[in-house]
Amino acid sequence: MNIKRKNMKRINESGNVLFLILIAVALFAALSYAVTSSSRSGGGDAASESNLINSAQVTQYPASVRTAIVRMIINGTDVTQLEFNVPSAFGTLSSNSVGVFHPSGGGATFVTSSPDVMATPTQQPWLFNSRYQITNIGTTVANNTGNELIAFLPGISTSICARLNTEIGISGGTDADTNGIPSAGVAVANIPTAAMNQTDSNSGIGAYNAAFEIGGAFSGQPFGCADFDDATPGTASGDLVYFHVLVER
After folding, report:
1. 5: exposed, middle or buried (C-beta count within 10 Å: 0-12, 13-18, 19+)?
2. Which of 7, 62, 154, 161 has the lowest CB atom count within 10 Å?
């Protein structure tokens, strides 16, 4: 009888976890729908319509990667084991089953950005790391147990960045360089780089660093477009970064 009760408890706990994960996926899907459906409201010039379509593309891709990660976690892969090796580096994965982009792992598609959304009109890779915390997302503590797993796209154009924040409802915050994009709140120039990617050669959750905490206007926001070098006058091509939480911790 006790064994039966324990089994039922495990089933209920698993069901609760799955239910919460599915709710989170639905919320992220709702973001993409909201951005896309806004284009049907009519009005606006061609540039505005183009910005709207391009911003929807930016939000949809990391949402699809998140879905792949949810499947991996449900199947028993811990978030600390996830590796974002690109297809050309599949050979060095710790195991194919932990590769987010590997067919035997998450099966997510690795893509680069559209040139149309970038400050410098060239394709750029998405970055995936767990070096940052976002205030009021998950737990905010002075160690890496509160670090989120986040997808980043550095180098977004000012117009696309502004459009993304408008659709998400982000406004206010510090804007020292007056480019219209709120500061991420991180220490100057702590912009995500490929060297931070969570791969087989840089595995596990990144180290905690208070200088990597995203806050201000983005406190409690699981996605947004932030200025990661707000103290510098003007806007360099890599300063504006779209971030999208894949796993809250």
Report:
1. exposed
2. 7
